[in-house]
Amino acid sequence: MKLSLQLFVSFLTVLTVFIVLMISTKPILTISKNVSGSVVKKAYSSLTELREELLNDDQNFAVSLSEDELNSMLLLANDLAGVNMRINLGVNNGIFVFQLDTRMLSQPLYINGLCLLGGAAEKLIDECKIGTIPINGKVVEFFIAKSALLFGGRELAELLEDSFSSVQVDHGYLVGEMTKSQSLGEDIRQGKRQFVNVSKRLFQNATVHKDAVAVYIDALNSIPHSETRLSVYIAQAFKTAKALPNAMPPKKENEAALWAVAILVGSNKFADMIGLDSLPYNLRSTQINGRFDLSLHYVYSMIIEMTTNVSLSNKIGLYKELLDSEGGSGFSFDDLVADRAGTKLAHVATLDNKHAVHMQTLFASNEIILLPKLDFPKNNLKSNNFELYFGGARNSELEAIIKRIEAAIENLEIYKL
Q1: Burial level of 404, CB count in 10 A (0-12/13-18/19+)?
Q2: One domain, residues 168 and 289
Q3: Does this model's pTM top 0.90?
């Protein structure tokens, strides 16, 4: 007993020292700036190029990423994960800095870390520190390679290991050339297919009852093809849920009902996600306020929320509009309203059984308005105009409009919690 107590005290002492060495009361990075359209476009372009390089059959794999491209990808990661990261590249070396914010007894605390890049032959990562704890670069490279082995397979792990000795810092770029096997692209695709298949099985078993979704699709198919209002399809789905015997909890019925709507009016690919096939249905075209694109924004956001969460669904919708501002149809606040409303509907309708039943009752007995009436004088903005009105220090104006959108959505009866 005495020995056990001594071991426990020793463990607490070591843990306390480790935490003291790792945690700081001062940040080493400023808060990441808001993600802009140019950041989203640059990150998307860079990731697409990397993906194409990995998947093609050419055995030569070239890397050339600028500091700007790397930081664009990191800014997106920062926004999604809440971790602050930056990279600075010089002539022959660089530094990668990360910072995790936390709180203890209302006191802000920071786990600060950095890795020195370049400066040593056959080694990309020279040395790292977490707080004041030094970690050898080879140790960090080992753990990164093992993580790649776990999530990407042997070929990808070997390619990553190769990159540590062949990729170097060169005048603000990470550059290098490696050799990959001709089968790497197919191995990655096969791994992705296996991951998707496993995810489908887990997803359909854990959350969505595909037989129930099929029942709702049959009910929706009774709606005349001439009917194009999305609100009618959602109302029919919830009316069916209200009328059905309680085979499943109401929130699960609503989940199945919304999947049926998304499959019928959004994309047949949603059926594949839950393992539903061989259904005799045709995709319907629906609209909100006379606009078919708003309907698609709405139902896609429903699915993103049900497969992830509200925060990620809202961020994806915003990123899409930022990307559109850089050469697409322009940043559209109307689209953003539909994104946020679709996310909100899925959240409220499947939050718990009480809200699920309330939603079924509302749609069964009321004329449904899916979107609030809002006017945006500055809309469908291309990059230059978007930056003019909402870039830099004027990001507070963009945030104010988003808050206005969310308040207007929550003011509609169907979205009230």
Answers
A1: middle
A2: no
A3: no
Q: Is residue 17 part of a domain?
A: no
Q: Which residues lie below 8 Å from residue 372, measured CB to CB, with a gap of 6+?
A: 337, 341, 405, 408, 409, 411, 412
Q: Does the pLDDT value for residue 179 go beyond 90?
A: no
In this structure, are 370 and 254 located in the same domain?
yes
What's the structural domain count of the chain?
Answer: 2
Residues 254 and 184 in one domain: no
C-alpha 170, offset from chain centre: 32
Identity of the residue numbered 297? H
Q: Note whether 242 and 309 are same-domain residues.
A: yes
Q: Where in the sequence is the domain holding 101, given as residue range(s)?
A: 24-188
List, in order, residues 6 or more apart from 250 with CB less than 8 Å away: 241, 353, 356, 357, 360
Render pLDDT for 387-401 as a digit per residue (tens, 0 to 9): 888 876 567 888 899
pLDDT digits (tens, 9 = 90+) for 339-350: 999 999 999 999
Query: Residues 266, 182: one domain?
Result: no
Instruction: Give the Cα separation of 177 and 84 in Å (integer).
Output: 29
Residues 244 and 375 in one domain: yes
Identify whether residues 216 and 354 lie together within a single domain.
yes
Q: Is 375 contained in some domain?
A: yes
Token couple for 41: 């476009």
Rounded Cα distance between 363 and 415, Å, is: 12
Beta bridge partners of 111: 23, 100
Residues 176 and 60 sit within 8 Å (Cβ to Cβ): no
**Same-domain pairing of 162 and 267:** no
Give residue-wise pLDDT tens across range 232-276.
999 999 999 998 877 789 999 999 999 999 999 998 888 887 878
The helix/strand/coil state of 174 is strand
pLDDT band (50, 70, 90) for residue 12? confident
Summarize pLDDT for 328-341 with one digit per residue, the tens: 788 999 999 999 99
DSSP 128-155: EEETTEEEEHHHHHHHHHHHHHHHH-HH
